Amino acid sequence: MSMFCYQCQEASKNSACTIKGICGKQNDLAKLQDLLIYVLKGISFYALQGRQRGIENERINRFTFEGLFMTITNTNFNKDRFIDQIKEGLVLREELRRKIAGSGDIEGDIPEAASWWGETEAEFMDKSVGVGILATENEDIRSLRELLIYGIKGMAAYTEHAYNLGYEDNNLYQFMHKGLAATLDDNLASDDLVGLVLECGKYGVDAMALLDQANTSSYGQPEISRVNIGVRNNPGILISGHDLRDMEELLLQTEGTGIDVYTHCEMLPANYYPAFKKYAHFAGNYGNAWWQQNEEFEKFNGPILMTTNCIIPPRESYRDRVYTTGSTGYEGIKHIADGKGLEPKDFSIIIEQAKKCLPPEAIEQGEIIGGFAHAAVMSLADKVVEAVKSGAIKRFFVMAGCDGRMKSRSYYTEFARQLPPDTVILTAGCAKYRYNKLALGDIDGIPRVLDAGQCNDSYSLAVIALKLKEVFELKDINDLPISYNISWYEQKAVIVLLALLYLGVKNIHLGPTLPAFLSPNVIDVLVKNFGIAGISSVEEDIALFMGE
Ligand code: FSO
Ligand code: SF4
Q1: Cα of 12 vs its chain's centroid, Å
Q2: Percent of the chain with pLDDT over 70
Q3: Which of 9, 10, 28, 309 to mutate to test the pocket of ligand 2 (most atoms within 8 A of CB)?
Q4: Is pTM, for the whole model, over 0.70?
Q5: Which of 4, 6, 7 to mutate to test the pocket of ligand 2 (most atoms within 8 A of CB)?
Q6: Tens digit of pLDDT for each residue in 169-216?
Q7: Residues 348 and 381 in one domain
Q8: Residue 369: in which H helix or E strand, if any?
């Protein structure tokens, strides 16, 4: 049986990738990812029982979020890494099982995922057949299990970034284990799983809040900033992904070397943090959203560090300049290991290579503005409230989420362009690249595109909405003049969506297509309870949102 993956928006024919991923994921890698998730479910079965008996295992917790993160779209394409991870997972699971058995009988029937054992790649490949998505026959149960798993994957990514900065919340680990173990339980009906999916949204809010706390306590509150999108004359290192600790360590290690540092894609918001802005060799942002990296990495000329997704299969022309770190990986690409204990990572190999490279080729020039996270927007609160009261701002549009390759995503550029001039876009995530360089002007000094930051900073947009609800003394967040037109791509967008649902936001429009993993009945539940909808034409949607 060949692979079956439908976890992202680019799933083949909006159904599933079954021969090879549109993302470049090969059949064997997809199956190893399925097996790793299966092993994590088995670990979760014991972790839950362990916790009830006071056995909290730091290594298991870390292994769980790392493993989940590795399986997110465009994160890790290195087969050997998955094989090692599965081996380590089985050993950890057995250690935990023995510990729990030592504290009394194990409760309930032990699922196969918690007892299966294998050692070789051939055994892993054999086992991977029959443990993937299609192992659940009922379409609705399968859909809800996967929705839950994807939400947990997104949560795991944010949890890992917070952990890297020393911030943890045991409740998040507990829910990851509870949710994963629940997907093994055939006694759970659709309603139970819907309940877990909504609970996942609650933990999604908590994970994003924790990461917000980690980022802002470590690097200060993002400030409204102008970011250079042109180039300088020195050789440069391009840093992509979401991990701010990697950003800090790279800036520290490149200081005084004559190398400039540029951000790419989701690292753009690093330019808004006071702790990073102070570095003279931090030169700005280079390029656009992840899917254009083939052309842009070629032109950058210097080394590129991928701290998280989205990585796409690199071309030969720049392959030797790409480095992965953290959860990312790619066969044949150099990987920068974690530092020992609290030690920083060692980026010297990248810096040495950069010294021998040409400066980046200019692909754009000028500046963009961003840094409208919750604290910065709150400092403008009076102005914003005044503009709403006077009618200068009629409506806000939350257009957070992700960008992607599909041609149909030009919808978002057109949507932004055609929105009435008395509207403001609130954005976060790489979705912004579809409209953050348009000349959309401002309203009484408030730019019409307010970028809060990375996809996890969608949390900021929720905080802003809740604050406005308070200021306008409204009972319901849905009474605010805010519409939600979200573009999604991978599993972090799933946790952002579940978090918004948990906060009570209704009538979210999701595009460019609805997730392939949602069965018709599950879509029905989301439509009935939350008013979730897809998108149609720009003109029709704008008229609908503006109540015309
Ligand atoms: Fe984009 Fe990729 Fe941040 Fe995602 S770079 S698509 S939702 O990884 O995480 O927004
Ligand atoms: Fe296909 Fe997306 Fe899965 Fe890649 S992650 S195999 S593109 S569904």
Answers
A1: 21
A2: 100
A3: 10
A4: yes
A5: 7
A6: 999 999 999 999 999 999 999 999 999 999 999 999 999 999 999 999
A7: no
A8: strand 367-370
